[in-house]
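Hey, I'm writing a tutorial for new members on how sequence and structure tokens pair up, and I'd like a real worked example in the thread rather than a made-up one. If someone can provide the structure for the chain below, I'll link this post from the tutorial.
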Amino acid sequence: MGCCFPENLLLMTSFMTASTPSTTAPLAGKTIALGVSGSIAAYKSADLTSELRKAGADVHVVMTESATQFISALTLGTLSRNPVLTSFWDEEGWQPGHIELADKIDLFLVAPATAQQVGNYANGLAPDLLGAIYLATKATVMLAPAMNGKMYQHEAVQKNLDALKGRGVEIIEPVVGELACGYEGIGKLAPIDVIVQKVISFL
């Protein structure tokens, strides 16, 4: 004898299945501060923001002033669905927004990370919001450097990276490719899918 279900029960089951949020998102419940610094690779932060959100993360973008010359805060705010921080002087309220963000995040990801940003973090400098968040957060820190190959291989930059690695900072190494300066070599931002998988593996 066959079994049948009332039509309204089938419709209700279908509705519940369609409207129930997926629980398989690997970054569900995680809050990420995505730092974007002034590299030509900053335009890739749009894709990175989208992919992190698709994975379930709550993404808050923080930009340096120079980064805004490559991609707009409006674009990244729209993709992240959160306000974008770009300056100490734009923050409102009694508690600085960047400190509040530093307290609540699970990961501070800087991609792209320029030589200047690497140097700032290695030497405890906070001339911008990214440096301040690095010093203030207890969250995991992950950097994806992107710069000219000769800059990346310079002894000063390598020493700074080694110092950060010694403090537990995760470095997503750049790859070999055609660089904005016209050279072919190491220094290109790691592929977005590689960065996302690294984030997932650490969170």
